[in-house]
From TrEMBL:
GO terms for MF: ATP binding; sequence-specific DNA binding
Domain of life (superkingdom): Bacteria
Gene3D superfamilies reported in the protein's UniProt record: 1.10.8.60, Homeodomain-like, P-loop containing nucleotide triphosphate hydrolases
Pfam family, one: AAA_lid_14
SMART domains according to UniProt: AAA (SM00382)
GO biological-process terms attached to the record: regulation of DNA-templated transcription
UniProtKB keywords: ATP-binding, Nucleotide-binding, Transcription, Transcription regulation
Record's protein name: Sigma-54-dependent Fis family transcriptional regulator
Taxonomic source organism: Litorilituus sediminis
Ranges of residues in domain Sigma-54 factor interaction: 178-411
SUPFAM superfamilies attached to this UniProt entry: P-loop containing nucleoside triphosphate hydrolases
The keyword Transcription is assigned to this record: yes
Acetylation listed as a keyword: no
Length: 507
């Protein structure tokens, strides 16, 4: 059985009154294979339904086509552009008609764009459904819509998850969204809030992955410049020959390829904030140009003979020790002091243990939320043992490393509750480099090698115990000691006592 399904359009009614074919009648009369049944749905113009139905049956009879099973059916929708109610109605009819027919044809020419869009999305999920339209002049054609919406949706969600997992966690909407349970981070947030109000230049210091950009964005959003843009530039990625153009702009014809005027980041951030990420990577020449712009409060586009005043707040960030770089002549002292009016140093994650558990929970919620759109994903939680293991790790890549590890664990594991083994499997093993100690001794110096050796052993044993949660077998393996009895001997020698375990628990 061939069935035609269509919304009733105003054009269909108007053309009927002129005894001229509209979209529905054109398709019904000219489709190569006649329709055994025609189902029309409508929510308005009900005073014309009987006339239209009789008129269409008459046209079909004259054309020697099946005409007995033609019906207009009342449906209730909130409005002709309300996707939800249109979807509810369409799903009911398309599901039923697809099941009752060998071939279901859906007319996309009648009704509103919302009705057509919903029909396409729902119809593409049926293997016996086709789409047809009519053009002015009575021509009809079958639409070959080259999309698998289910596959496209899954692919889109997968790309979204991938993009999210490889980026930084959000946590930057405002200071209140930044995880700060430890006293160290509470102090950082308090200082950042004060600096946000004062409109001073800020230098944000901290290891890679500690959240320098998160804090910088929060400072901008809490400042009186929040209604203006914040522009970000990674100073380590600035091509030396394009520094001037990127930061200060250029005029048309200033150099080969300058086909039109271009405003630099300073002008784009006028009234707002310019975030200079990895400012310690700037070349000496770029440092000079940046200092000049900060001192004068104006910029000159490449190839221009006039300057433009700019009102920009600068927030700079780096993982490098700028003080040491200044001492070594690698960073301009005058630029350093111009940037370092307000200084915020973000502690490493391993130095704010109280933040690890709430931060982990916040990141897990964020990952679950992002991945929830994927049909095969089930929300995950972290087991008690897995959380204990997470707390024991040094996280040398800080929040970024924790974020990446959790993404791997949650997205790749089939367990609804993430285990300690899931986290271990998701860690990226780092290659240990040999320490080439450059030792200098003067004649007469005395060193205690046994004491040095003992201090080194104690440091490594303590770190290994922490990483394994005081598990002797794992610790012995990590330290290359073989069986755990060798570890017991070393613990006694170093006078290291393990916390007493509850009765019934094995070491």
């Amino acid at each position: 059985m061939n069935i035609l399904y269509s919304w009733l359009g105003k054009t269909d009614i108007n053309n009927m009154k002129k005894d001229v074919s509209g979209p529905i009648s054109v398709i019904a009369l000219k489709m190569a294979q006649p329709f055994d049944k025609i189902v029309i749905v409508a929510n308005s113009w009900d005073e014309d339904w009987i006339d239209y139905e009789n008129w269409l049956k008459k046209k079909l009879a004259i054309a020697h086509r099946p005409y007995e099973d033609v019906s207009i059916n009342r449906v209730r929708i909130a409005s002709p552009i309300d996707y939800k109610s249109i979807s509810d109605v369409s799903q009911k009819w398309i599901n039923k008609l697809s099941a009752d027919s060998e071939s279901l044809y859906i007319n996309l020419s009648s009704g509103t764009p919302a009705m057509s869009a919903v029909s396409v999305i729902l119809g593409k999920g049926k293997n016996n459904t086709n789409f047809c339209q009519s053009r002015e002049g009575g021509e009809i054609f079958i639409d070959d819509i080259p999309f698998n919406f289910v596959a496209e949706y899954d692919a889109s969600v997968a790309r979204s998850i991938s993009s999210k997992a490889s980026a930084l966690p959000v946590q930057s909407k405002a200071f209140k969204d930044i995880t700060a349970t430890s006293n160290q981070m509470k102090s950082v947030i308090e200082k950042a809030e004060k600096l946000a109000e004062l409109d001073l230049p800020v230098l944000v210091l901290g290891e890679t992955g500690t959240g320098k950009e998160v804090i910088s964005n929060a400072i901008h959003k809490a400042s009186n410049r929040s209604s203006k843009p914040i522009k970000t530039v990674n100073c380590g990625a600035l091509p030396e020959n394009l520094v001037d153009s990127i930061l200060f702009g250029h005029v048309k014809g200033a150099f080969t390829g300058a086909v039109k005027d271009h405003s630099g980041l300073f002008e784009q951030a006028d009234g707002g904030t310019l975030f200079l990420d990895e400012v310690g990577e700037l070349t000496p020449d770029a440092q000079v140009k940046l200092l000049r712009a900060l001192q004068q409060g104006e910029v000159t586009r490449v190839g221009d003979d006039k300057s433009t005043n700019v009102d920009v707040r600068v927030i700079a960030a780096t993982h490098r020790d700028l003080s040491e770089m200044v001492a070594n002549g690698e960073f301009r002292e005058d630029l350093f002091y111009r940037l370092a009016v307000g200084v915020i140093e973000i502690p490493a994650l391993r130095n704010r243990m109280e933040d690890i558990e709430p931060l982990t929970e916040a990141l897990v919620n964020e990952i679950n939320s992002t991945a929830s759109k994927y049909k095969n994903y089930k929300a995950k939680s972290i087991s008690t043992k897995a959380m204990q293991f997470i707390r024991s790790q040094p996280w040398r890549g800080n929040v970024r490393e924790l974020w990446s590890t959790l993404n791997r664990a949650l997205l790749l594991s089939n367990n609804v509750e993430i285990t300690e083994q899931d986290i271990i499997a998701s860690l990226i093993q780092r290659t240990k480099k040999d320490n080439n100690l450059d030792v200098h001794l003067s004649l007469g110096d005395v060193v205690d090698l046994n004491k040095i050796k003992e201090d080194i052993e104690r440091a490594y044993v303590t770190a290994a115990l922490k990483a394994t949660g005081n598990a002797k077998v794992k610790t012995a393996k990590m330290l290359g000691l073989g069986v755990h009895q060798n570890l017991d001997t070393l613990l006694n020698k170093l006078k290291i006592e393990l916390p007493k375990k509850r009765q019934g628990k094995k070491a």
